[in-house]
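Tutorial, part two.
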Amino acid sequence: AALLAVHAGALVAQQPVLTRAFELERQGSFAAAAEAYRTVLSARPAETAALLGLERALVPLGRGTELIAAGRAALAADSTSAAPYGVLVRAWAAEGRIDSARAVTERWLRVSPGQEPPFRELVGAELGRGAWGEAASDIAAARRRLGQPDALAPEAAQVAVAQRDWMGSVREWIAAMHQLPGLRFAALAAL
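Running the prediction step on this input gives:
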């Protein structure tokens, strides 16, 4: 009971720091926000809100590589949470280390087999880098592995647009809208 009370007290004590970090971030004080998020993560490395906040604070500062240590610590604390995997995939891809991003994706897939998010994160990172060929290859691999011919349809539509394959893009957007009807505005904007 005493241990539970100490743990609960630590959680309550961290909440104001997390709130302050968010406020600093909102004000554009990214360096100060990053330090506040790190304070939370030092006590609770798997705190999703703090990890994602740290990402939002470090990227505008051009310090995305610092996310790698935080993401690894978060995975060590909780290897079942999706957030650290996503942060690591994005951080490695931003550094041009797509091999490391793929390795994290494979590790994530072992924890979440048959799920689209690991593939979606990797492909999204590739799209962000303009690596259309790599994205197309990974979409095809994801579809084979998932056994879903329309998996990652929105991402496949983006690749098709980049490659000026208008009919392919239309086919992919139609598949995407069947999955998520709310995407029709994104489809119209993309085409």
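Residues 2-26 form the longest helix (25 residues). In part three we will examine how such features are distributed along the chain.
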